[in-house]
Amino acid sequence: MFKSRAMNLLFTLMVLVIIGMIVVFFFVFRQQSDGENKGTDIDEIINQLTVDTGEITTNIKGDHFIKLDFNIQVSNKEAKEELEKRTFQVKNAVIYTVSGMTPEDLQDQQGIAQLESLIKKRVDGFLQSGTVTHVYTTEKIVQ
Predict the structure, then answer these.
(1) For position 36, what pLDDT does the model report?
(2) What is the model's pTM?
(3) For residues 53 and 93, what is the distance between their CA atoms, to the nearest angstrom?
(4) pLDDT tens digits, residue range 114-141?
(5) How far apart, in whole angstroms, are the C-alpha atoms of residue 123 and residue 113?
(6) What is the residue-wise DSSP string for the chain?
(7) Would you say the C-alpha torsion 121, 127, 131, 136 has a positive or negative sign?
(8) Across-strand partners of 69?
(9) Sign (positive/negative) of CA torsion 135, 101, 93, 55?
(10) Taking the CA atoms of the chain, what radius of gyration do you get in angstroms?
(11) Helices 109-126 and 87-98 meet at what angle, rounded to 10?
């Protein structure tokens, strides 16, 4: 191809390096995309990582009552087992948190998100086997 043997060798090496880089790129990219598709299965989240608080009814500021129910998702199975044993502390944290709120604090999405964040921080404070990854409000009625 080229007149110089060194140039032929250099060209062949460059082609092989480029082909190798393309193969590595596709291999790494495929592994990353497979990892993204293998996210946590919903059945695993429900059965192994989520604890239902049950219905919690308490009074809030302004002579009003609130009825709440949460599903708390944790990072691992050990944390779920611990959280199931600590349900009395979870209910206490919820009651303590909402007792200082008004109905107006809990009317919009921002108020619910703030409540979920506060509960997440409080529950994380006493959870030792893992962490709370998300708090889902499954029921909210203010009277």
Answers:
(1) 47
(2) 0.70
(3) 11
(4) 999 999 999 999 999 999 999 999 999 9
(5) 15
(6) --SSHHHHHHHHHHHHHHHHHHHHHHHHHHHHHHHHHT---HHHHHHHSEEE---EEEEETTTEEEEEEEEEEESSHHHHHHHHHTHHHHHHHHHHHHTT--GGGGSSHHHHHHHHHHHHHHHHHH--SS-EEEEEEEEEEE-
(7) negative
(8) 139
(9) negative
(10) 27
(11) 140
Among 53, 92, 67, which Cα is nearest to 142's?
67
Amino acid at 125: G
Is residue 132 within 8 Å of residue 66, measured between CB atoms?
no
Q: pLDDT digit string (tens) for 47-75? A: 889 999 999 999 998 889 999 999 999 99
Instruction: Check if the beta carbon of residue 81 is closer than 8 Å to that of residue 111.
Output: no
Cβ partners under 8 Å of residue 96, min gap 6: 122
Contact 105, 82 (CB under 8 A): no
